[in-house]
Inverse folding.
């Protein structure tokens, strides 16, 4: 039987950085489910789909096939066989994914694929609903969070490195809006699974968070 680790938490909590490190050190396959939702958002943007109209989004989902591959250990996302990994990390895609991921047809499109991967392999999967909906039987569940200020500051520094002109205030507002959407949607909202371990990374280094998760993993394996 495969071993599954679920890491959920809000935007900017450091999930993907931590998840990449932990999965590499434990020899697990890392599945970034946010990237899958982002690939669907790319389809909606490229095809001018009205993302606020449920019927249009549902019809579009019928045209979408998402698959994952790995190159040098890095996850690649394919949208109808085209590698769109390089298109996923823009603010426009983030905002669109936050709206479209609340649509039941979008979630249905990805659920089976996510579960199939976890059934076959030892995966560490991160997202918003992994511990609550996708893999309720995961052997280890982590809910990784950090204060809004910490998350906005981290994202601001990343944006500055990319040379973007976003202000700290804009980023903080964007994070707050996305938190509200992710946590309040009717279907698969972001919330801590009852049996998830809560980790607040506001005052922790990446190394400390990685070590903490590995410690919990060792405890579960004993
Ligand atoms: O983690 P991320 O920022 O790459 O996620 C992009 C969007 O997808 C975000 O608004 C939340 C949504 N998402 C989701 O609804 N369920 C998941 N399992 C992963 C992401």
């Amino acid at each position: 039987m495969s071993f599954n680790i679920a890491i959920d938490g809000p935007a900017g909590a450091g999930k993907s950085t931590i998840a990449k490190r932990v999965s590499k050190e434990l020899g697990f396959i890392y599945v970034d489910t946010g990237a899958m939702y982002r690939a669907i958002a790319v389809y909606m943007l490229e095809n001018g789909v009205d993302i606020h109209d449920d019927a249009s989004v549902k019809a579009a989902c019928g045209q979408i096939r998402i698959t994952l591959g790995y190159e040098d250990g890095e996850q690649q996302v394919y949208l109808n066989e085209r590698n769109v990994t390089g298109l996923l990390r823009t603010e426009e895609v983030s905002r669109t994914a936050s709206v479209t991921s609340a649509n039941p047809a979008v979630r249905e499109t990805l659920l089976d694929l996510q579960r199939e991967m976890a059934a076959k392999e030892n995966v560490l999967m991160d997202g918003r609903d992994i511990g609550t909906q996708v893999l309720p039987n995961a052997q280890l569940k982590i809910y990784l969070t950090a204060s809004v200020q910490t998350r906005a500051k981290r994202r601001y520094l990343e944006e500055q490195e990319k040379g973007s002109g976003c202000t700290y205030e804009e980023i903080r507002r964007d994070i707050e809006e996305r938190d509200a959407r992710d946590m309040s949607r009717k279907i698969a909202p972001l919330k801590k699974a009852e049996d998830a371990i809560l980790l607040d990374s506001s005052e922790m280094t990446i190394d400390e968070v990685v070590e903490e998760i590995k410690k919990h993993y060792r405890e579960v394996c004993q």
Observations:
- The chain is about 50% helix and 15% strand.
